[in-house]
Q: What sequence folds into this?
């Protein structure tokens, strides 16, 4: 039954699907709930259980949402349709699960399972209802993202250049990049890891900006498969670097902290958060020219958590510029900003529903 | 709002203001858990629901404030309040006059002429008002505050859990005892205090910073529901406030609980990167371990920030921490005497 539903989601969807934005709503953190707003009608549909729901993530075809939620002191992973039907709490082995991410084909979800140094990457196959560990015996892995296509080839090439690296059982369609915690006598550190079902190894130092010990976080592969954006404090403060076939370079370069890159759908630029205005603001960076432009920033208010519309023409984001945090929609330049809903605020983590893939 | 009314009625009773006081929380900050310590000639910020005429009141002394107003991020009205050069040192209530009444926050503004180069402060944690301990946590808290009053601490950091169930009566009891403290009291709630919105209604946002002389202090919530610091404003607030405190001689964080990232998944990775990696705190004081909490941990796993845990006030404990040009040095825990 479940397999049929997920296979159907992959074929023959020529849609007249309305623009929808999933988000988290609620003043009280313990009762926050995933909702879906319809941009045309303004209707807001609660779809999550409302037990401290986390940031929602759409499946590539827009049929399903995944998010983590509170579960008797732990965190469960849920999936649900955009209209609130089919809500399902996945039967996972560990009680603490976070950061769900859909695989490129939309039938598997990767997430971090466990706590602290015991965290490992798990992959749940919704077609077969099975949960499998990835990364071999490596623990301390978190915040997985899938990489496929050209970026996968480029990573494989880079790994192939270094004969000292152990062989990994690369998957032909998609593998995972995750953040790995490393413990040494110098203390904790974080690194970027490539994760396959049988193992996990750090991305080779020759690909990173420098060989020193720096803390990486928040890796995001570009949708066109050419690059992976990630954060590092290499250089003294938090910057956003872009990793490509021949190495990594600093794109955001500013003495204020730069965070949370989110690629545009065409992969030509990414939106990110920076404190260069004095508060948390939104900016856009172009890796090819290293140009940075402001989207929404002010010394009086915060702007964060950008999410692109499927055509790249608009952004949804959160701001407290009018009081309680609420979601705004604007053109990708930041112009014509308007609230997503007529609600009282306390809205977080927007995720724009992707346009379904059209398969003839 | 009924809850806030009740608590403020209790505050009005215990604080014994000399003039009629409206019970609405018009003045959000400063307050008795989020005071300001400021020198004559310097200025502080006040956050109010609406603009009002402001002054400081202490017994028969009143100090008029000539303020400038701006809209505040997150809502409300921000007043920049310069302290007149001739304002007498002492602890003041801040009072707001509006057409519909008079609003007063007691123990909110502490005017002092000098900030010493070397001083100490007290850390009190895990009061747990409403718990089943004998003697009651309220009476034990009273004994601890009296002991702190007898010390030469310049101010007190009070970290959660302040209450057992975040109930109105528990907050009433907590503020009743807090208000016998003769020193500025900076509170920071624990997860038990934040099951509703009463904590923030009373004291303001969990994440905040203040300066004492050359040093910076940063209060934050280490036990927000998992992942919420990433969704909400906490990560951004911590980065912004930590950056503001960067020029300080020493920067000291205070929170209810800190489980290192190996065991405690709730302190978000972003929070850890901000506080322990990119601009490391010099010291983090916290509680939570309660009866087992007798160890001093030298460093956090990121190997930069010193970590100091204080035993619970429900066990009569508190700690004095010395701040000198050479460093920040915690003394062993001390224990108040109860009847």
A:
């Amino acid at each position: 039954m479940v397999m049929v539903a997920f296979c159907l989601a992959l074929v023959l969807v020529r849609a007249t699907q309305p623009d929808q934005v999933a988000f988290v709503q609620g003043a009280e953190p313990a009762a926050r709930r995933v909702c879906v707003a319809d941009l045309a009608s303004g209707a807001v549909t609660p779809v999550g259980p409302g037990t401290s729901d986390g940031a929602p993530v759409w499946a590539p075809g827009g049929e399903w949402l995944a998010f983590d939620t509170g579960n008797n002191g732990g965190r469960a992973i849920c999936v649900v349709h955009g209209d609130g039907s089919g809500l399902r709490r996945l039967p996972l082995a560990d009680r603490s699960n976070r950061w769900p991410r859909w695989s490129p084909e939309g039938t598997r979800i990767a997430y971090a399972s466990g706590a602290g140094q015991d965290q490992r990457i798990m992959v749940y196959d919704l077609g077969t209802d099975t949960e499998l560990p990835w990364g071999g015996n490596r623990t301390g892995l978190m915040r997985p993202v899938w990489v496929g296509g050209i970026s996968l080839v480029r990573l494989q090439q880079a790994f192939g250049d270094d004969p000292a690296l152990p062989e990994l059982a690369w998957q032909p369609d998609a593998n995972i990049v995750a953040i790995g915690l490393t413990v040494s006598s110098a203390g904790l550190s974080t690194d970027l890891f490539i994760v396959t079902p049988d193992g996990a190894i750090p991305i080779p130092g020759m690909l990173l900006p420098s060989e020193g010990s720096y803390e990486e976080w928040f890796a995001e592969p570009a949708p066109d498969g050419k690059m992976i954006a990630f954060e590092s404090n290499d250089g003294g403060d938090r910057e956003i670097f872009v990793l490509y076939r021949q190495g990594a370079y600093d794109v955001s370069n500013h003495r204020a902290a730069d965070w949370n890159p989110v690629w545009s759908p065409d992969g030509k630029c990414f939106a990110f958060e920076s404190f260069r205005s004095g508060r948390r603001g939104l900016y856009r960076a172009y890796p090819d020219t290293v140009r940075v432009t402001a989207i929404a920033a002010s010394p009086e208010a915060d702007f964060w958590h950008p999410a692109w519309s499927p055509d790249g023409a608009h952004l949804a984001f959160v701001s407290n510029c009018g009081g309680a945090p609420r979601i705004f929609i604007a053109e990708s330049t930041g112009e014509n900003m308007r609230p997503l809903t007529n609600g009282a605020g306390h809205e977080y983590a927007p995720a724009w529903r992707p346009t379904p893939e059209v398969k003839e | 709002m009924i809850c806030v009314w009740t608590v403020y009625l209790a505050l009005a009773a215990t604080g014994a203001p000399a003039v009629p006081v409206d019970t609405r929380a018009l003045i959000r900050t400063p307050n008795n858990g989020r005071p300001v310590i400021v020198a004559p000639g310097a200025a502080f910020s006040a956050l109010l629901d609406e603009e009002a005429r402001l002054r400081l009141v202490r017994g028969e002394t009143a100090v008029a404030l000539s303020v400038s107003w701006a809209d505040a991020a997150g809502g409300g009205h921000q007043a920049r309040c310069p302290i007149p050069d001739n304002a007498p040192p002492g602890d003041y209530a801040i009072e707001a006059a509006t057409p519909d009444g008079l609003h007063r926050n007691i123990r909110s503004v502490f005017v002092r002429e000098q900030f010493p180069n070397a001083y100490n402060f007290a850390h009190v944690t895990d009061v747990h008002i409403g718990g089943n301990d004998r003697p009651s946590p309220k009476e034990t808290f009273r004994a601890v505050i009296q002991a702190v009053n007898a010390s030469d601490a310049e101010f007190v950091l009070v970290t959660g859990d302040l209450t057992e169930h975040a109930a109105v009566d528990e907050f009433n009891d907590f503020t009743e005892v807090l208000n016998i403290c003769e020193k500025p009291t900076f509170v920071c709630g624990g997860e038990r205090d934040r099951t509703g919105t009463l904590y923030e209604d009373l004291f303001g946002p969990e994440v905040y910073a203040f300066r004492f002389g050359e040093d910076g202090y940063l209060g934050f919530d280490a036990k927000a529901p998992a992942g919420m610091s990433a969704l909400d404003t906490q990560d951004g607030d911590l980065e912004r406030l930590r950056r503001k405190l960067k020029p300080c001689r020493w920067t000291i964080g205070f929170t209810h609980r800190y489980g290192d990232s190996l065991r405690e998944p709730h302190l978000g990775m972003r929070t850890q990167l901000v506080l322990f990696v990119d601009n490391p705190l010099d010291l983090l004081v916290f509680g939570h371990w309660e009866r087992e909490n007798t160890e001093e941990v030298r460093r956090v796993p990121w190997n930069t920030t010193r970590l100091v845990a204080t035993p619970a006030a429900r066990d009569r404990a508190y700690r004095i921490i010395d701040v000198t040009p050479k460093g920040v040095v915690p003394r062993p825990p001390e224990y108040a005497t109860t009847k």
User: Anything to note?
Assistant: The longest strand of chain B covers residues 101-111.
